[in-house]
Design goal:
Blueprint (H helix, E strand, L loop, with lengths): L5 H36 L21 E4 L2 E5 L3 E9 L8 E10 L6 E3 L3 E3 L4 E9 L14 E13 L7 E12 L1
Parallel strand pairs: 2-9
Antiparallel strand pairs: 1-3, 3-7, 4-6, 4-8, 5-7, 8-9
């Protein structure tokens, strides 16, 4: 009869423990990576350079949208970039905030954006996330599948005391699908 060597059984146990520790570390790293991906999905990207755009914002058209129309499924979100040119030379740098002030039919899509400081004579693209609300839980009326003409407005306050507020606006077509 053969006897099992005690050292061999000890080595098998140590190898099993090492493999389990490595597997747990890899599992933790994988979960952390996936969680990071999901957290970044709802974040806005930074400001965008408009100098390479085909139709950048200028002094004559200080607010430009890319894309110029938006198609979004009810309850879902879509991205839009608002290009703004600060044509107010006397005000210096302005702090712009973008919002959709209304659409035909009295609907108001939800907007997620960030403020942007733009120097006089400069332009920048501000990314926004537009959500077609499909329930009345948000306090806004439900947006039904249809085409809407929406007004987007960029309001600015000057970083210089006493300067008047600045407002640019334009309209775009938003198509909501079911």
């Amino acid at each position: 009869m053969r006897r099992i060597d005690k050292r061999a059984s000890l080595e098998i146990g140590v190898n099993t423990i090492v493999i389990l520790v490595i597997a747990m570390m890899l599992l933790g790293l994988g979960i952390g990576f996936i969680r990071g991906l999901f957290n970044k999905a709802n974040q806005l990207p930074g400001l965008i350079d408009t100098s390479q755009w085909q139709n950048p914002p200028t002094a004559s058209t200080p607010i430009v949208l890319t894309p110029s129309s938006l198609s979004v499924k009810g309850g879902d979100s879509s991205n839009l970039v608002v290009g703004i040119y600060n044509k107010e030379a006397s005000s210096g740098s302005l702090q712009f905030i973008v919002d959709i002030t209304g659409c035909t039919g009295g609907v108001f899509p939800s907007v997620k954006t960030q403020p942007a400081s733009i120097a006089a004579g400069d332009s920048v693209g501000i990314p926004i996330i537009v959500t077609a609300v499909n329930s009345t839980q948000s306090g806004k009326p439900k947006i039904l599948p249809d085409q809407y003409i929406c007004t987007i407005e960029a309001n600015a306050t000057s970083l210089v005391a006493g300067a008047p507020p600045v407002s640019y606006q334009t309209q775009f077509m938003m198509t909501v699908t079911g």
